[in-house]
Design goal:
Pfam families: AA_permease_2 (PF13520). It is found in: Membrane. One of its GO terms (molecular function) is L-amino acid transmembrane transporter activity. This is Amino acid permease-domain-containing protein. The chain has one domain. It is 60% helix and 4% strand. The chain has 21 helices and six strands. A two-stranded antiparallel sheet has the order 1-6. The longest helix has 34 residues. It is globular, with a radius of gyration of 24 Å.
């Protein structure tokens, strides 16, 4: 067999599956296709650790910042609280879909592996679109911007979004990247410490909310629960319409992001079948309860008009109304700021590793550079890529309320990805020729509900909002159009990538600089489509099982 340009004939010899391949999924020489099911010595994360892994990613700026925009869109206390509770149930439905995929394909990488399993043709189209989406939208901009706003609030200088909070946000992102790149142990330790801290801050809000319900607050009772289900229109809230509800749900979904975090490191979980089944639902149910109670706390202490206009600093306004304009009340927003920077640390750490792996697999241009671990034996180059995207998103929007736009832009393309994952699972279950099996099977109606939710989230933002063609100072179609543009950019990148440099390597190893290369020293950047083609031409489909292989020059 020779490649399509007639360069070097290659023989692909199938090897039997190793003992570590617990579910028949492929183990690729040199790690070409990402992490395989690793041996037991690499499995270090138990059930408790997995719960905190998910909690640390889920609890970020969202619950401290998005409730304002969500209530402004709905104009109803009851509908707003219902959205938070229903979003928790929908998150559980998404978790159920990811459980079935993750336990059938126990490799790190999350939806990248699942999309590759279902959408095998055209070759590597799914991988390319995912790579572009995760690189361009895997930023820490919203968390950094919230940090800037809360720092100003804590220092007694609250101000709307503008260049001053954005400058603080850029400094925050830069500091985090330098910390992870130069002092990785310090960065990881601070991430873990602030992860616990975030939970404590959220519990403080919840218990303060109970006190507010009992009448212990520094402001009069806002009576927000008197007309619980009434849809009101006031100054800055009660927008209504399909667009408003879709935007509100996107912001709720953003606040729940992180529930799939364990699937990204599935190869490092102890007994993944048991661990994921226990840790995933436990973490999501806990967060759903905390989020719903936190919103009850906000409504118990903040009048509707103030809540709708508070934008990012909802939690800061809550502390002021609970504890007055005292030094203590002003210092409490600093706790939220620390929580925000904790999320920046967690997101930067995770996405830099994803960028590095995409470089190692040859999917990104200049892969050798992005895969590099020099000079501090850290993914410094991938952190730099994450920093470039984060800073660009922070400075590109014009002055104005950029937070909601950034949140929606971050979440919208992901709804497309999750929709394709859900549709793919339904296809596998109905198509018997795929021979799909998994230790866990979700109920198909659950997968169908999750699919319908994501269809709503990707279509409704194109319905013009009532009362005008703008939202938060931007054209209403701005974030869905930009999000779609990023997905189509992934298609364009795939078209270019698969048509340049089609040589095959004879052997792969990991270079001293962190990149994966062939035995003749060439960087493995453009070989994966042909390897995939050779692999799939020789191996059956069953569960995506493709055993190891050896390539020999003919």
């Amino acid at each position: 067999m020779s490649d399509r340009n007639g360069k070097r004939p290659v023989v692909v010899v199938l090897d039997p599956p190793s003992d570590d391949d617990e579910s028949g999924n492929r183990i690729v020489a040199g790690g070409v296709a990402g992490d395989s099911a690793p041996n037991s010595s690499r499995r270090k994360i138990g059930a408790a650790g997995t719960v905190f892994l998910i909690l640390n990613k889920m609890i970020g700026t969202g619950i401290f910042s998005t409730p304002s925009g969500i209530f402004a869109a709905t104009g109803s206390v009851g509908i707003t609280l219902s959205m938070w509770a229903v979003a928790g149930l929908l998150t559980l439905s998404g978790l159920s879909v990811f459980l079935e995929f993750g336990l059938a394909i126990p490799r790190s990488g999350g939806e990248k592996n699942y999309l590759e399993r279902v959408y095998r043709r055209p070759l590597y189209l799914a991988s390319s679109v995912f790579a572009v989406q995760i690189v361009l939208l895997g930023f820490s901009a919203s968390n950094s911007l919230a940090f800037g706003r809360y720092v100003l609030l804590a220092t007694g200088h609250p101000m709307p979004d503008g260049w001053i909070p954005r400058t603080i946000a850029v400094c925050c992102a830069t500091t985090v990247v330098l910390l992870h790149g130069v002092l990785p142990k310090w960065g990881l330790g601070l991430t873990n410490a602030l992860g616990v801290f975030k939970v404590l801050v959220l519990l403080l809000i919840v218990f303060s909310g109970f006190a507010a319900l009992a009448g212990h607050r520094m402001v009069p009772d806002p009576h927000n629960f008197d007309d619980f289900w009434a849809i009101e229109k006031g100054d800055g809230y009660g927008v209504g319409g399909a667009y408003a509800y879709a935007t509100a749900m996107l912001q709720v979904v953003y606040s729940y992001k992180g529930w799939e975090n364990a699937n990204y490191v599935l190869g490092e979980l102890k007994n993944p079948q048991r661990t994921l089944k226990v840790a995933g639902p436990l973490a999501v149910i806990s967060v759903t309860i905390l989020y719903t109670l936190a919103n009850v706390a906000y409504f118990a202490a903040i009048p509707k008009g103030e809540l709708a206009k508070s934008e990012v600093i909802v939690a800061g306004l809550f502390f002021r109304n609970m504890f007055g304009d005292s030094a203590l009340a002003r210092s409490l927003p600093a706790l939220v700021a620390l929580s925000n920077i904790g999320n920046v640390l967690a997101v930067s750490f995770a996405h830099s590793r994803v960028n590095q792996e995409l470089g190692r697999e040859g999917i990104l241009p200049w892969s050798r550079f992005w895969a590099s671990t020099k000079p501090f034996n850290t993914p410094a180059a991938s952190l730099f890529l994450h920093w470039i995207v984060t800073v660009t998103v922070l400075v590109a929007p014009p002055p104005g309320p950029a937070y909601n736009f950034i949140v929606n832009l971050y979440t919208y393309p992901n709804a497309w990805m999750n929709g394709f994952v859900a549709a793919g699972l339904i296809y596998l279950r109905f198509n018997k020729s795929e021979k799909w099996t998994s230790p866990f099977q979700t109920y198909l109606p659950v997968a169908g509900i999750y699919l319908l939710l994501n269809i709503f989230l990707v279509l409704a933002p194109f319905v013009p909002p009532s009362g005008g063609w703008s939202a938060d100072g931007y054209p209403y179609y701005a974030y869905p159009l930009v999000g779609l543009g990023i997905l189509f950019l992934g298609v364009a990148y795939w078209f270019f990538w698969t048509r340049t440099g089609n040589h095959l390597a004879t052997k792969l190893d990991v270079g001293t600089n962190g990149e994966r290369r062939s035995d003749d020293g060439k960087s493995f950047e453009d070989e994966r489509p042909l390897l995939q083609e050779a692999e799939e031409s020789l191996v059956g489909r069953g569960n995506g099982a493709r055993h190891g292989y050896t390539r020999i020059d003919g």
